[in-house]
Amino acid sequence: MSTHTFEVTELTPLIAPVRAAVRRGLSPADTADVVAARLSGYLTEGRPLPERYRRASPDHYVQHLIHVEDDGSFSVVALVWLPGQCTPIHDHRAWCVAGVAEGQEHEQRYELRTDPLATPHLVPTAEVTNHPGDVSALAPPGDIHRVANSSDALTISLHIYGADIAALGSSVRRVYDNPVTRA
Q: How many CB atoms lie within 10 A of CB 46?
């Protein structure tokens, strides 16, 4: 159980509907889809993110923890990216939803192939550039991706994870260094 308390009054219009969606007890994939619809609605309202969640670093993207539900069932974070910053190729511990609030994110999704006569390798399966208001939903297994700020401006995205990020430190379950091949 999380004991973290954060000032989130600005995000109450997002957190309350996400809480209701998570409490429905749906499958991880269905929960991610319902939460994605809630985040999409919130982003289309164009509410500004408080300044304390907009701080960037010249060295790497920054994760600002905004909210952890008391029972640890979900967390909300803001990721702040300068141009060219990116994640490694990774998957997640739980379902996740990401929506662009400002700027743009480029997402490359992968599938891990384990052919009997070859070294396990990653194959690109989808590629998309997300703009303000665009939302992606992922649920394990099959949630391998890499995200980058592909623009020449600051990018801010809101991420909602089906886990207690304060306790875990990150939503990343595994980082992949397998070779990438074309299908």
A: 9
Task: State how far the Cα of 60 lies from the Cα of 141, in Å rounded to an integer.
Answer: 27
The pTM of the full predicted model, rounded to 2 decimals, is 0.88
On the CB side of 44, how many CA atoms lie within 13 Å of its CA? 8
Delineate the domains of the chain, giving CATH numbers in brackets. Answer: 9-175 (2.60.120.10)
Per-residue pLDDT of the chain (183 residues; tens, 9 = 90+): 333 444 556 788 889 999 999 999 999 999 999 999 999 999 988 777 888 899 999 999 999 999 999 999 999 999 999 999 999 999 999 999 999 999 999 999 999 988 777 788 889 999 999 999 999 999 988 889 999 998 999 999 999 999 999 988 888 888 988 777 776
Q: What CA–CA distance (Å, rounded) separates 63 from 156?
A: 10
d(CA 58, CA 66): 21
* CA 53 to mean position of chain CA atoms: 15
Nearest to 130 by CA among 145, 144, 147: 147
